[in-house]
Amino acid sequence: MSKEFQYTIVSENEDDYSTIFTCIEAPPAPITKLTITGLTTLCTIVVLNEKDYIDINGEEYYLKESYTNLNSTSLSSLLTDLLKECKIIVSVDHSNRLNFRKEYDAQFFIYGMSYNMKQITGMYNTPFPIRVDTKGGYSVQSVGFYLSTPILYLISNLGARCFQSKARNLSDQKVVMRINNSFMTNLPIISNNVEFTTFVVSNSLSDIVFKLVDANFRPIKLLSPIFISAIGEGIETSYHPWTINIPGSETLEAKQAKDDKIFF
């Protein structure tokens, strides 16, 4: 029997296409070298939804629907309409950054906003609250991410550890694929993996979790299934100069919930 198996794994849950719970047949060997070779889906990323808001003067203004296809112009119009009750106008400068100002240049405060709103408005590194009392309003210092963060990750309970310099809580995420975000809305995402390979106990292939997340390891909401291609190569244990990844008792969902509570 061949000791190399090839797999195609598909997400089927319409409520959460970015997550896959599955099992695959293991090669006839005690250890499996598992490599995710590719990921394909349509670029239908929900960048804002009904849970997203912006807090002006202590009052939270929530969106009324979900959005997948926004640019700086459409976002500024959306926010101006959302904040029309407090007479705030959102515009775009020549550097494609947002500007918030109130009619007659009156003072107001931006006390905060949801995670997705920070990413798309460019306020992902901005300290809150923001006091706006200048004649020109408040100009955001960074350009927004209109199709999620520049890098996405496919993480798994069987993945290899990936380290980041941004924060310690991101250092022990188990990654099986890194995806550079050069997407265009409603066009295919086709990504090949040349970076991550993991060695696992073959029996652990009976219980696998995959999840597509952004650069901060926050879940991505997709409106289209993802297709994952993988290769599993059976390895004998005569020589073992590798690190074997054993799934921990803590699930990805539990770990994400704990990280959200502590760091966001």
What can you see in these coordinates?
It contains three helices and 17 strands. The strands form four sheets. Strands 1, 3, 13, 14, 16 and 17 form a six-stranded mixed beta sheet that branches. A four-stranded antiparallel beta sheet has the order 2-15-11-12, with no helix packed on it. Strands 5-4-8-9 form a four-stranded antiparallel beta sheet. The protein folds into two domains: 158 residues; 87 residues, no CATH class. A hairpin with a 2-residue loop joins strand 4 and strand 5. The protein is mainly β and 264 residues long. The C terminus is likely disordered.
Estimate percent helicity: 10-25%
> Using DSSP, what is the number of strands?
17
pLDDT averaged over residues: 85
- List the uncertain runs: 259-264
Structural class: mainly beta
- Global outline: elongated
> What is the gyration radius calculated from CA atoms?
22 Å
